[in-house]
């Protein structure tokens, strides 16, 4: 079955470029295009996609507010697409529930891989992006050190959280911990539920904000 995608961007050339990249692959289908965040919500309601590629800066309703509303109402996955890899709104979008972000000039294969990764529930945010994003934003944010919810995690769930914070996929975490990938996936689900988080990217942010890992050592 095809992975169904809605592309939201106020620039026609950007929408066209993303459509061409995605539809060159046999398993990807662009089922709708939106010109702003409000349109994106309507497209999702009508088209029922698997995920949305969402620009940040758009008229009427920006991608941040649209992401927040979509995650709250529909649960559809959102990948933020931005002109700048350190856009000032990216972290807020991730906190709103986006599963990660891409830079608009990313190589076509990276965009395709990101869509497929999100569709299968795997990691999207890379170690390089993790370091640059968190060094820019999280290190300047007030720390939530000593968050009591960390104590609710089992040692193995804590190990999995550290792996996610380092940008590792389920397969990489499984190899590191000498576990089956399905076992790691179970640990991820329980860890997210205990911490009240909705995505792996939110887990990365949580790990940095609570001081479990720091930009200087990157979670191992």
UniProtKB/TrEMBL annotation:
Source organism, top-level taxon: Bacteria
GO MF terms, alphabetically ordered: DNA binding
Record-annotated membrane-spanning stretches: none
Modified residues (4-aspartylphosphate): 55
Keyword DNA-binding: yes
Record-linked InterPro entries: CheY-like_superfamily (IPR011006), NreC/VraR/RcsB-like_REC (IPR058245), Sig_transdc_resp-reg_C-effctor (IPR016032), Sig_transdc_resp-reg_receiver (IPR001789), Tscrpt_reg_LuxR_C (IPR000792), WalR-like (IPR039420)
Signal peptide start-end: none
GO biological process per UniProt: phosphorelay signal transduction system; regulation of DNA-templated transcription
Keywords: DNA-binding, Phosphoprotein, Transcription, Transcription regulation
HTH luxR-type domain ranges (all copies): 146-211
Domain Response regulatory: 4-119
Gene3D superfamilies tied to this protein: 3.40.50.2300
Descriptive protein name: Two component transcriptional regulator, LuxR family
Organism: Conexibacter woesei (strain DSM 14684 / CCUG 47730 / CIP 108061 / JCM 11494 / NBRC 100937 / ID131577)
């Amino acid at each position: 079955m095809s992975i169904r995608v809605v592309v939201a961007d106020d620039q026609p050339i950007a929408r066209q470029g993303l459509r061409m990249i995605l539809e060159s692959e046999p398993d990807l289908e662009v089922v709708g295009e939106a010109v702003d965040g409000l349109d994106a919500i309507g497209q999702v309601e009508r088209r029922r996609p698997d995920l949305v590629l969402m620009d940040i800066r758009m008229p009427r309703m920006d991608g941040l507010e649209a992401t927040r509303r979509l995650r709250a109402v529909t649960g559809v996955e959102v990948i933020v697409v931005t002109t700048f890899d350190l856009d000032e709104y990216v972290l807020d979008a991730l906190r709103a529930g986006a599963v990660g972000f891409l830079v608009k000039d990313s190589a076509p294969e990276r965009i395709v891989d990101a869509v497929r990764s999100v569709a299968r529930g795997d990691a999207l945010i890379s170690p390089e992006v993790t370091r640059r994003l968190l060094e820019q934003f999280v290190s300047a944010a007030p720390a939530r050190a000593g968050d009591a919810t960390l104590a609710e995690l089992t040692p193995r769930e804590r190990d999995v959280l550290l792996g996610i914070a380092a940008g590792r996929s389920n397969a990489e975490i499984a190899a590191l911990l000498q576990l089956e990938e399905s076992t790691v996936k179970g640990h991820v689900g329980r860890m997210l539920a205990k911490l009240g988080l909705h995505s792996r990217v939110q887990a990365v942010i949580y790990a940095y904000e609570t001081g479990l890992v720091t930009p200087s050592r990157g979670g191992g």
